[in-house]
Write a structure and sequence with these properties.
Distance between the termini of chain A: 78 Å
Number of helices of chain A: 10
Largest interface: A-B, 34 and 44 residues
Radius of gyration of chain A: 19 Å
Number of helices of chain B: 16
Largest sheet of chain B: 7 strands, mixed
Number of strands of chain B: 19
Distance between the termini of chain B: 62 Å
Strand order of the largest sheet of chain A: 9-8-7-10-11
Number of strands of chain A: 12
Oligomer: heterodimer
Radius of gyration of chain B: 23 Å
Largest sheet of chain A: 5 strands, parallel
Structural class of chain A: alpha/beta
Shape of chain B: globular
Helix content of chain B: 25-40%
Chain lengths: ~270, ~500
């Protein structure tokens, strides 16, 4: 007789039950926690607290941690392939997820060189522009590609130093919840990634109107959901990211970044 | 070193009496009434409605301008839509030529533009002459050069224009904000419909003349005037693919809500409540100049104004003494006078807003300081003002005043300065004054703001990206980053 796993939310580096005590069965068999508004609140709090530390890591260190996550994910390939339904399609999706993590791991220490600038202003000033993480990013994982769909959005956000509250795909959350186990063993500091499962319809309004969320990645949402998200995002001028390109891109990293410009006079 | 009372009184008295030095206005021809600039020519508004634009320094009417209604907005957007295909397909180097031409025309007509800007908006002529107009021309010159180099701006991608951009700009830097909006949009191959603020429409209407002089193809730039209603019609028009707004956070949020789900691209440059932080090792006299420039430049009608002075406790007293003395030397009055430091408040509504917030500061317990200052009888005026004993919870420390009002707070440690500076929903700019290089970089890293001025303040340049964190908006204007909001990357 096998020892079954109870799936849990991933908040502040810990695997917790939903405070609501509720569950739902996306596949009719396994109980998955149905996260609540309060779970989101806890996740946003944890993310906010983790933000200065993660943004303050050296770019090299963030790259190493993302690469470590790729190693851990690849090491559990068999488990994920099974979760994704087995076969070559599942294998391909896992490979994509691993490749995405590796690719962005190599971007952490190149981003400011590619998107930053030194600006030749008309005057005796040294002036430069650098990308900085925008802060707490909410990611609504797309329903298709339950693993690589999330990783494709998670990796660029983390790459630049953002912290994340991710909503697992409602219809197939197991890969996302298991990805939390990978991250928990990859030296990702507690709170940097938080993964909540539950019902999108219930959670989206709270997430998109939360005052301490800086950006929301809505690429995995329907047009109706995007409209609702954009309406409530205005409450604190959230950045709503809709770049849907499946391609890996530094422009996607930049979508999660702020540009900061610094001036200083030159003189003796 | 503290001065005796007698010494500081003596220093506060002006050494020179300044004779009036008004800029001449006889070379400027303002028409009695203006239409809308649609499809390359000035047209009579469908609405048949006009409203006056006044000189806030005299309350005299300068001209009547059109109030565009839904039909006018639709005509303008259609004109821009019609012009889009050929403008986007025009060889990039030709687009560049037009922008270079516009830049040159702005330089050639700089004096006229400066005078009109000052008469319509109330800002000192030395600012419109030395800041607004030259920077506007420089902005067009800078983006002109990008028009045929987009493949170097976005490596590995093809940058395509979006279509018609609907742009709404504020009254504090009318022509400069126009340049920030129109230059990158056109360079990337978009066409535009721009609405200037209702209190300062004249320089945009002069710009319409410049477009004609430059023989810009009809419909590439359209200028429609009106108030908030016109702006809201413009941003909501279904054929507008890109919305760019500079103005208050309140209106910015309303726009974000209004266009939700429409698929329009949006950039917002909104309010601010910047901290200007002075450490105990800062060169105080330079810092005083920076503080004055930070909050009294353009009567404080600046979204990135250094409206919260955070001063290290140990130097608060000598710094404030120097600052108060300096306030006494600021010359308030006729904006057209070349010696004027502080001009007129842009409108009666803005004056009332400033007065209301200043009253709240007094009521909440802050200590008011204003130098002796004679205000002209006509027009809208507010003396340079500073508040001490300000708590972070006071409205004058939290809300954007958009006037010549400085709130002074103190701190002891760098960490406290960071906490207080970032304790605001805004994040547009910040200032740091210290002699220590490592501390400048440490502070610059921690400011949650889009622009950090270290040992300087309120500097602008077309090559330098500008824009906010948090509720100060998103997107950047200026530099290569300023092109991004106007392109689709394929």
């Amino acid at each position: 007789m096998d020892v079954r796993k109870t799936y849990k939310l991933f908040v502040n580096g810990e695997f917790v039950r939903s405070e609501s005590g509720r569950a739902y069965r996306p596949d009719g068999k396994v109980n998955v926690p149905r996260g609540s508004r309060k779970d989101l609140r806890d996740a946003v709090r944890a993310a906010r607290a983790a933000f200065p530390g993660w943004a303050g890591r050296t770019a090299m260190n963030r790259g190493q941690i993302l690469y470590r996550a790729a190693e851990m994910l690849d090491g559990r390939a068999a488990q994920f392939i099974e979760l994704l339904g087995g076969g070559p399609k599942a294998r391909h999706e896992l490979d994509q997820a691993v490749e995405t993590l590796v690719w962005y791991a190599g971007w952490t220490d190149k981003l400011s060189q590619v998107t930053g600038t030194v600006n030749p202003v008309a005057g005796p000033y040294f002036n430069f522009t650098i990308p900085e993480p925008t802060g707490v990013v909410a990611i609504i994982a797309p329903e298709e590609s339950p693993l690589s769909g999330l990783v494709r959005r998670l990796a660029p956000a983390l790459c630049g130093g953002n912290v994340v509250v991710a909503l697992a795909p409602e219809s197939s959350p197991l890969a996302a919840l298991t990805l939390a186990e990978v991250l928990a063993t990859s030296d990702v500091p507690a709170g940097v990634v938080n993964i909540i499962s539950g019902q999108r319809k219930e959670l989206l309004p709270w997430l998109s109107s939360h005052m301490d969320v800086n950006a929301i990645d809505a690429a995995g949402c329907t047009p109706e959901e995007i409209k609702a998200i954009e309406e409530s995002a205005a409450i604190n001028v959230k950045r709503v990211i809709k770049v849907t390109s499946a391609e890996k891109s530094p422009y996607l990293i930049a979508a999660f970044m702020e540009m900061k410009t610094v001036w200083h006079p030159i003189g003796v | 070193m503290a001065l005796t009372k007698k010494q500081s009184e003596a220093l506060a008295k002006p050494v020179f009496e300044y004779a009036p030095a008004p800029e001449s206005i006889d070379h400027v021809k303002i028409q009695p009434r203006y239409g809308l600039f649609i499809g390359g020519r000035m047209v009579v508004p469908h609405s048949k409605k006009r409203f006056p634009t006044i000189n806030p320094a005299t309350e005299q009417k300068l001209a009547e301008v059109a109030e565009a209604d839904d039909v006018d907005v639709d005509r303008a957007v259609k004109a821009a839509g019609k012009a889009f295909d050929s403008w986007a397909r025009l060889s990039p180097s030709r687009r560049a030529r037009y922008l270079f031409r516009i830049s040159r025309l702005l330089q050639e007509r700089s004096r006229e533009l400066a005078v009109v800007e000052t008469m319509d908006g109330g800002k000192p002529i030395k600012e419109s002459r030395d800041v607004d107009i030259p920077l506007s021309a420089a902005h067009f010159f800078y983006y002109a050069g990008w028009a045929d180099k987009l493949e170097w701006a976005f490596p590995n991608r093809k940058a395509r224009p979006l279509g018609v951009a609907g742009q709404v700009i504020p009254w504090n830097f009318p022509l400069l904000m126009l340049a920030w909006k129109i230059a990158p949009a056109l360079a990337a191959g978009n066409t535009v419909v721009l609405k200037p603020a209702e209190t300062t429409p004249l320089s945009a209407l002069l710009f319409a003349e410049i477009c004609m002089q430059a023989e810009l193809p009809p419909g590439v730039v359209n200028i429609i005037t009106g108030a908030g209603k016109t702006g809201s019609l413009l941003v909501s028009h279904p054929d507008v693919k890109k919305v760019a707004f500079t103005g208050s956070t309140e209106v910015g949020k309303a726009i974000q809500r209004a266009i939700a789900g429409s698929g329009k691209r949006l950039t917002l440059e909104l309010g601010g409540k910047a901290a200007n932080i002075v450490f105990d090792d800062a060169p105080l006299d330079q810092a005083v100049e920076g503080i004055v420039n930070g909050i009294y430049f353009n009567q404080g009608h600046v979204c990135c104004a250094g409206s919260r002075l955070l001063v290290q406790e140990s130097i608060a007293e000598p710094l404030l003494e120097k600052l108060k003395r300096r306030l006494g030397t600021l010359r308030l009055g006729d904006p057209l006078d070349k010696n004027t430091d502080i001009g007129a408040i842009n409108s009666r509504a803005q004056l009332e807003k400033i007065q209301g917030l200043v009253e709240s500061g007094i009521e909440e317990g802050a200590e008011l300081y204003q130098p002796e200052c004679v205000l002209p009888e006509r027009g809208f005026w507010f003396p340079p003002t500073l508040f001490t004993n300000v708590s972070q919870s006071y409205r004058i420390a939290r809300e954007e005043i958009f006037g010549p009002v400085l709130s002074v707070l103190t701190f002891r440690t760098p960490n406290e300065a960071v906490e207080k500076a970032n304790n605001t929903p805004y994040g547009l700019s910040a200032g740091v004054w210290t002699d220590k290089g490592s501390r400048i970089l440490w502070m610059a890293e921690r400011m949650r703001a889009g622009v950090v001025w270290a040992n300087t303040f309120n500097r602008f340049d077309p090559t330098s990206p500008f824009g906010g964190y948090k509720e100060s908006g998103f997107g950047r204007e200026g530099g290569v980053h300023g092109l991004l909001p106007y392109v689709e990357l394929n």
